[in-house]
Write the structure tokens for this entry.
Amino acid sequence: MNRLATTFTGLEFENPFVLASAPPTESKRKILRAFEAGWGGVVTKTIGLHHVENVAGPKTIFQRASDVAPYVSRNKRPDTVSHSSWNWELISDQPLDLWLPDLEEIKKTYPTRMLIASIMAGADGDDEMANWQKLARAVVDVGCDAIELNLSCPHMDRKDMGANIANDEDVVRRILKAVKEAVDVPIWVKLTPATSSLVEGAGAAYEAGAASISLCNTFPSLPLMDPETMKFEVEVDGLVTSGGLGGLAILHQALQRVSDISKVYPDGAISGIGGIRGFREAFNFIVHGAGNLQVCTAAMEEKGSGGVGVQLIEELKSDLNDYLERKGHNSIEEFRGLARERIVEHNQVRRKSENYNGGYDIAS
Ligand SMILES: Cc1cc2nc3c(=O)[nH]c(=O)nc-3n(C[C@H](O)[C@H](O)[C@H](O)COP(=O)(O)O)c2cc1C
């Protein structure tokens, strides 16, 4: 029996591990390599219709921390461990027309693996709604199993795109309505963690027919400046802008957000993302309610595998399988969401004395 198999948003995954929308899924070559290595699914690098041109410098850096010299930096030093990725890469610059035959070939080559197309358009006006529909129809026509709406890219100039619109519940509803009218596949909605109304945004998405929330995209953040050179660790002509932090550094914050949504919508599906490097992180997303797991930074960092996490997926599968066997579970569903009830209000946690009323006076 395959204990790793899961049904998520109605789709059959051989295992719950999926490469997230990012460089590991930016081309046919990489996606085929990822499936060969054993990933259960991929979400393609986000595909759009607007003009994309990246900055004239590095798009991603990998930052490391060290016990010996305990500061975070991209600079190569001995005895360091991974801390995070920082990127300001835009969505795919490969046009839709070139993606379509690639997607078709990928799906034909690996029919049992889940191919999810990440798409993005704007929010201003009917033309943009038509763009969402055009993208959705095109990728479904060539065989994609599901769609992920990118409402979360943290470095968009356009105010009607990416993380800039994730706060707006009406916009979320409008986009979902348009896409659902166009196609009949599960629609995942990838939200930004950088909003105080995340749970409301997720609620609007579920109500409007989202099959799942994907969480998190990267956290808006700045790279560090070197005190000696006065240069940012990544910059172009001395300038930088808000980019996205990913990797281990965002794990705890991503878990909090998955938990926030899962507690209010225990029946809502969640694809957990943020800092997964191995079984332990994946396990944590599952106990907070995630039924599917996406990975980006750890796959990119793996040396010698072309940035698609060949060894990583082997380890994830075998460590999860060992755990399930050892605990006598038939699937992750048997422990999914188990932490939910143990996340409570601060005042619900026992004090040493009984004279505490959540900071309020105790009525005498
Ligand atoms: C270089 C880079 C490019 C990315 N591009 C996209 C993208 O096009 N669309 C998207 O939805 N997320 C994008 N992401 C975000 C990842 O899919 C993922 O949500 C994030 O990196 C957190 O996961 P991690 O901690 O495993 O890296 C990108 C991340 C990185 C590092």
User: Anything to note?
Assistant: Residues 20-23, 45-46, 60, 85, 87, 89, 91, 118, 150, 153, 190, 217-218, 246-247, 250, 273-276, 295-298 surround flavin mononucleotide (CB under 6 Å). The chain has a mean pLDDT of 96. The longest helix spans residues 310-327. The CA atoms of residues 60 and 260 lie 29 Å apart.
